[in-house]
Amino acid sequence: MKNNHTAKPLFPHLPERLAGLEELAENLWWSWNPGARMLFKTLDRQAWKESGHNPDKMLRELPRLLLEKAGADAEYIGRYDDVIEVFRKYMQQKACHLLAAFSPDHKYAVAYFSAEYGLHRSLPFYAGGLGFLAGDFIKECSDLYIPLVAVGFMYPEGYFRQQIRDDGWQENIVESIDREAAPISKVMDKDGRQRIVKVPLTDPPIHVAVWKVAVGRVSLYLMDTDIEINDPWNRGITARLYIGDLEQRLRQEIVLGLGGAAVLKDLGIDHYLLHLNEGHAAFALLERIRATVSKGKDFAAACEKNIEATIFTTHTPVPAGHDVFPFQLIEKYFHSYWPGLGLDRDAFFQLGIHPNKPEVGFNMTAFALRLSGCRNAVSKRHAEVSRKMWHSLWPDVPEDRVPIDYVTNGVHVPTWIEPKIKLLLDTHLGADWLDKHDDPAIWQRLDNVPDTELWQTHHWLKVKLIDAIRERTRLRWADGGGSSSVMLAGGAFLDPSVLTLGFARRFATYKRALLIFQDLPRLKKHFKDRWRPIQIIFAGKAHPADDPGKRLLQDLINLARDPQLGGRIAFVEDYGEQLAQYLVHGVDVWLNNPLPPFEACGTSGMKAALNGVPHLSVLDGWWGEGFNGKNGWAVDHDANSENPDGSDAEKIYRLLEGQIIPLYYQMSENGIPLEWVRLMKATMKNAASGFSARRMVKQYIEKFYSSSIKNALED
pTM for the whole thing? Predict the structure, then answer.
């Protein structure tokens, strides 16, 4: 079993000359650095593919003879030495110039708590956008030398794998993570045993084992309750993401918040700015307040001190997305806790009451908003919605002055830029473009990229996407598959010469996955058009407890296998990080049509735009800021329409028929859609700097971190 203090090599068959591959494999830095990925890939391309692009798994399975051959290859060794040098320079400690106010005596200045992290498919600790946002955030903090530590859960069963039955219904397949074949290690105590930490004031006691993932310079600490010291009914608390049972969900959030704070204390990390990514970890606030109360301050004074050192990011404009727990459950688990805060039962309950709905229970978002000094939404539009949603917490101020600011989400450019696109940009934007990618001036150099080269690269990526989809279908068929119609609906008939729309996101009803099918006969004409056809690729999971979402997905599967639609619809099952990479790189148009105002931000469209894929979206979430009239198409939703869905679908059809289809098929003499390529460049110019994680992290620093740090680091 891997740990942080063993001298025993993880891959004993590695030649000494290639010993640095172990160092690389155990740090996810390789996942956003193409040169490092190629080191592993060129060892054995088939093994790389079969490992799911997981060097930890691949190195365990490669024969020593093959590794020795690579160690004797001068060309491979040259590339290896270059990558190792870049990695080790990257990992050297440097002061963060963006946070010069931080005391150099403090190793960690920010503690980032999140229930999920989307980092790599070998670590399935994510359900969707919230997790990928957290993953991109900590990667960018690593790139910028932000002194940050992250806290989350080590879910042995991850989220779930999706498989489509013959009747089109989603099945939820649970698979346990292979910890030996993932870039994760035990955190050891001074006695050489895995560090075990008791969750504060739990009775009977709950303990967590501590694991670590190295994300560049950032340490992500993950807690696991599946250990022998725990009672059997407590071992499954961290089994999988977003447990449906309400009491178990509360126990999970107690462990994440109280336990996460205890883990940091056990690691000697006592002074930090607490950044909560959604309300799941909000109980961490209580531990900081309790520690201050224990030093002699009353609850009000302790709150005042700690509120100034807390930032809370809310992502959810959907009321049902905010966790609310019955008061009797809160009392069951906290009746022995609130005396340590100097509170009685009613005073504790008041911390989590929604003023407009006081009877429904303890609202985790209301709780976090009350006890955080900095609060932000994740887009300008989402901030407006959030101020309206939570105005009752500040009834004496006008709605537009409710203290909820915003930082629009962004995506980690090195992770989501496709390597062939990066090579093109390396050639034409200059060697410094990636280091300065949040500078809009850098992206004006896109005009230097030959139209033919950009188009040919995009077309290659489209072929790669369709080949990958077909291979997934073939493997599913070879593994026992399902009905032939479900297999064919998985993308067997996709054509890389056809205008391709992509729709990939969670199958919740407000996402309106089937909106484009409102007028099926009209759409069918475009599927069957001999000269200018379209096709649509869908992907996404419904939450295991969301039957309406599953029914939507089933309806889509039935459409996809209808021969009358010409094989122009594909649903690709088991949407995850790897498929997301293929999709955002390879489709021609990214389709997004949620019911406003329920899209908080929506980062998948940013990832597509970064790679030159224009956005066709309802003006909600980030697109209200992102659309400039030159980088895609906007659907202006009319909430007062008698038939809002029909109205929005009509606008999409008009854009397709009047602008998108004609522009895509308008070819030059050498077969290049020049106006479309100009649209691609305009898309990249807007997204790459304005909607990057670098811009996002810098805004968090400017708006929140810099003003809160002094109080966070004071004793």
Answer: 0.95
